[in-house]
Write a structure and sequence with these properties.
By secondary structure, the chain is an all-alpha fold. The protein has 10 helices and no strands.
Length: 193
Amino acid sequence: MKFSDKLKIWLKSKSPKTLSSLDDTFKEKSFAVAFLLLMALAALPIPTGGITHVLELINMLVALELIIGLHTLWLPKRWKKMRIGKMIEAKALPKFIGFISWLERFSRPRLGSLFKNAYFPRLLGIIVLVFTISAFIGPPFSGLDTLPAMGVVLISLSVLLEDVVIFGLGLISGGIGITLQISLGSFVLRLFH
């Protein structure tokens, strides 16, 4: 079964849309799915009223869990029961399911052994943490948080689809986002000096 179909079934199910139910449904890929859902809203070029910062903080915690070597998602009980939010559930996820379905038509497993390497989860955690921090510090309403967040989304999808080409696209997207932040930040500093 395609990942987009599994996500549709989870979204349409009557169970509460929490990180705990996500972990139960997607088990071995729960970290990648968590990254995808937590960063989906930040990856859209729309004003979000600051909710993305809360989701990014949770995403940083999940990335740290991968870095230290946890194999299952750990979150405080309160966060596990927290619903993913009506905005994500009603607007962001359906759009991303369409995007994922489109991507699945072109994707195929490439270098799947990379994703099964024992060191890969830690590397993934470091990359996701760096991109999430970059999205978090991006000035609001500037769009500078979108590219690093899209990098996390693409990298998450690459893990779910086991496609190294999508992983590369995620690295490029996040890298461009970080480069733009550094370039514009240094320009603004020079402007004020």
